Amino acid sequence: MMRKQQTFSRGLSDKVRKSKAAPEIQKNPFEVKINRKKFDVLGRKSKHDVGLPGVSRSRAIQKRKDTLLKEFRLKDKNNTFIDRRFGEYDSKLTPEEKILQRFTLERQRTQDRKDMYNLNEEEELTHYGQSLAEMEKMTDVIDSDSDSEEKGLLSAELTATHFGGGGGLLRKKSAGDDEEEEHKPRSRQELIEELIIKSKQEKRERQTQKEEAQELTEKLDQEWKSIQNLLAHKTPKAERTDETDKPKLDQYDMMVRELGFEMKAQPSEKLKSAEELAREERQRLQTLEADRLKRMMGDAEEDAVQTNTHISADDMNDGFILDGDDRKTLAYKDGKWNIEGEEEEKEDEDDDEEGEDDDEDDADEDHCDLQSDEGSEDEDGQGAEEEQVCAEEPPAVSEEQKKAAQEAAKAELPYTFPAPESYSDLKQLLQGHGSEQQRLILDRTLKCNHPSLSAGNKAKLQKLFGFLLEYVGDLATQNPPDLRTVSALIPQICGLCQMFPEAACKAVQTLLSDSGHSMEETLEVKGRAPMPDLDMLVLLKITALLFPSSDFRHPVTTPAFLFLSQALTRCAVVSLEDVCKGLVLCCLALEYVSLSQRIFPELLNFLLGLLHLTVSDKHNMGYTVVSPFRRQGKSCDLLVLKDPNVSHSWNRKPISLQTAHRLPAQSPVERDHYRLSLIDSCLDLVKRCTWLYKDLPSYAHIFQPIRALLLKHLPVEGYPAPIQDLHREILDAIPEKPSQHAPLVFKKKKPIPLKLFTPKIVQILDYGKKRGNTKEEKERERLKHKYKREFKGALREIRKDTRFLAREKLSDVMSRDAERKRKVKELYGSLATQEGEWKALKRKNRK
C-alpha cells in the first residue's frame, strides 16, 4: 500500500516538473494543488488532476491589467495620443532604418514645399483679366488734379435712400440742377405740399388712363362684333346634309373627361371630442335660457338695431374696407326669430357695391404717414360724407306686445334643467307636459349634466336611469296607460345605458329579481300567481332593446329568460286580459330567441294551451296540455266563440296593449271579435315558431301535438278566411309524420390487443442523473446544463473583475494619500527649517 502511494505521488511530481511554470514554482510544493478522485474509472483520462492555482491567478491578473485596467484608465477620456511616426509600430525595422526612412520623408516634404513657389516663366498670372506683372508696375496712376469735384461724395438719392429723409419724398437731382443747389433748401411744409400736388396729379392721370382704356375696349368690342360673322359662319343644322358626323369619343377619352370634372376633396374641420361637444351644447342651452329669461322679464329689445361702427384713431377714412361686418343682432318676436329687413339690407349692399366700384382706384394709393396727415383732407371729407349711414330709430313697442312676448317666453320650456336627486323630483319635472316635451326635457337635462362637465354628474345620471325605469312603469300602470310617452322616452333610456352600462345592468337586475321574488311569494301564499302587469312587460321589452339576447349567458338577459319561463308556466290564465298578456309574453320570448334560435319549450307549451282554449269538445284529444292550463275546468273555454256568425263581420287589426291592462265593457259581438283577434295572433306566433325551428332534427316531433290539435280539434270552419289561410299554411309547414331516426348506439371501437411481454430496451447515454427519455429531451437537458455552467462561470469572472477594479481603485487612493502626506511633511519640514533659522537670527541680533 505504501508503495502504491509513493508511485502515485511520483507521477504527480513529474507532471508538475514538466509544466511550463517557473522553476521556483515547480520546485515549491505549496504551489501545487492535487485534485484527488473518489474512485478511478477505466478508460477515462483526467486532465485536471493537478493544478497550479498561483500560476493561473497571476496570468489572470496580468490579463486584466492588459485589458480591463486599460479600459478603466481610458474611461470617460476621449483624447488619446497616437504615435503616427513612420515605423513606430513596425517591429521588423531596426532603429537605424527607422531614422533613415524618417529623414528621407522629411526631405521629400521640404522639396515639395519649395517647388510650390518655383513657378515657370511661361505661365502668366492674371487678376480679373489683367496681368499681375503690369499691375505691379503701377503705370495707370490717375493724377489727383484730374479728379472731379464730386469724386468720393455721396449722391442725394443714395443719401435719402440709406440715411432717411422719407425715401421718395425728396425730389431727385439731375445734371441740370446746379443752379438750384446754390439756393437755400426748401422747408418740410413745402415738400409736403409738393408731394400732395404730385399725388393728386398721379391720381388724375390714372383715372384718365382708365377711361381711355375703357373707351378703347368698348370700341374694340363693337368692331369685333361687326367682323365676327365674317370669321366663322355656321350653317343651320337643317342645311348641313353633306357634313359627316363627328367621331364618337372613345371610352378612355370619356373617362379622362369625367375624371377632370370630379369633385375634389375639401379640407374639413377638426373632429371634436365628446367633451368639447358636450361643453358647446351646454353653453348653447345656457345662452338660450338666459335670452328666454330676459324676454320673460321684458328686458330684451323686440327689433334688431344696427349698431354704429367703431372708427379707430388710425383710420385714414379713405373708403378702404378690409372686411365688411355682416353680423346681425339676434332678436325674437312672438317667440320666433325676427328676420325682417333682410331685403332692405340686400338693397343697401347692392348700392354699396355700386359706390365701391367707383372708389376701387383710390385704394391703390400709397398710404404713408405724410400723405394721411394733410394731403388727402379734402378727399377724406368727401368719402366720409358719402359712406356715412344714419341708423333709423327702432319703432316703439307697445305694452300689449311686451306682455304677449313675456307670456310666450313663460310658455316656452326652459333650456337648462338640474339633474333630479330623487324620483319625486323627476316626476315633478315631467308631469304636466306632453310626450315630446318630456323627451325634450330629458334631452336637455342630459346635455346640461354631461359626465365630462362635472365630477358629480356621473352619479346623478346613474340614479336618473333607475328613476326613468320606475317612471316608465308608472306610466304603463296608469288607467289608461300612456304608451306614447313610454315610446318617446326609450331613446333617452338607451343613451343612458350606453353611457353607464354597469349601472344600467344593476338597475335592471334589481327590478327583475324583485318581480321574481314577489311572484314566488304569491305562489307560496295563494298557490297561483297572476300574469305580470303591463309595467313588467314594458321592462322586458326595454331589456331586449338594451342588452344582447343572443348571448349564451348574460347577467341581464339570462334572468329575463328565467322570468319569462316562470311566467309562462306558473301564471294562471283566467280572463281575456290574461290571454292578451300571455301573447305579449310569447312575442317577447320569440324576440329573445330569434337570433340564437334557442329552443324555448315553455313558449310552445303555452301556445298549445292557448289553442286548447278554442276547443269546445275536450274529449278524445291526441295531445297533452301542461301547467298553467288544464284539460277541463272553469277557464278552459275563454276563446270559444259564443256566436259563430260573428266571423263574417270581423276585420283583422292589431291588438292594442291597453286591452292587456283592462278590457273595456263591450258587447258580446265585440268580445267575440276580440277572441278572433287573439286566435289570429296565436296562430301567427305558431307560424313564426315553425319558421324559426324548421332546421332542428326534432322539428316534426316538437310540433306534432300542435298539428294534431289544428287538424282534428280546432273549429276552423267557423273562423274568417284570413285565419283559415293561416291555419292551412301552418299545416303545410309541419310534416304529417315525423322522420324515422336510427336508435342511438355506442360507437364501435377497435378491440384492444393483449399486452405483450417483450422487454423494452432503453439506451442509456449519460450515467448518473436522469437526462430524459427521448433524444430531444436529452439534448435540451444537456444545453440547460451547459447554460447553467456558462452562466455561473460568467458570474464568477464578473465578480473577479469587480474585485480587481476595487483593488486598483484602493491602490490609487492610497498612493494619492501617500503622495499628499509626503508633500505635507516636506512643507512642514521646510517651515520648521525657516522657523529655526529665523529664531537663530533673532537670538543673534539680541546678542
TrEMBL record:
Q: Which family does it belong to?
A: Belongs to the NOP14 family.
Know the name of this protein? NOP14 nucleolar protein homolog (yeast)
> Where is the segment annotated Disordered?
1-29, 164-250, 263-283, 298-409
Q: Main subcellular localization, coarse class?
A: nucleus
Give me the stretches of Polar residues compositional bias. 1-10
> Which PANTHER family does the UniProt entry name for this protein?
NOP14 (PTHR23183), NUCLEOLAR PROTEIN 14 (PTHR23183:SF0)
Alphabetically sorted, this entry's keywords are: Nucleus, Ribosome biogenesis, rRNA processing
Q: Which GO terms describe its biological process?
A: maturation of SSU-rRNA
According to the UniProt entry, which residue ranges have a biased composition of type Basic and acidic residues? 182-224, 236-250, 324-339
GO CC terms for this protein? Answer: Noc4p-Nop14p complex; small-subunit processome
* Compositional bias per record (Acidic residues), positions renumbered to this chain: 340-390
- Identify the species of origin: Cyprinus carpio carpio
Q: What does this protein do?
A: Involved in nucleolar processing of pre-18S ribosomal RNA. Has a role in the nuclear export of 40S pre-ribosomal subunit to the cytoplasm.
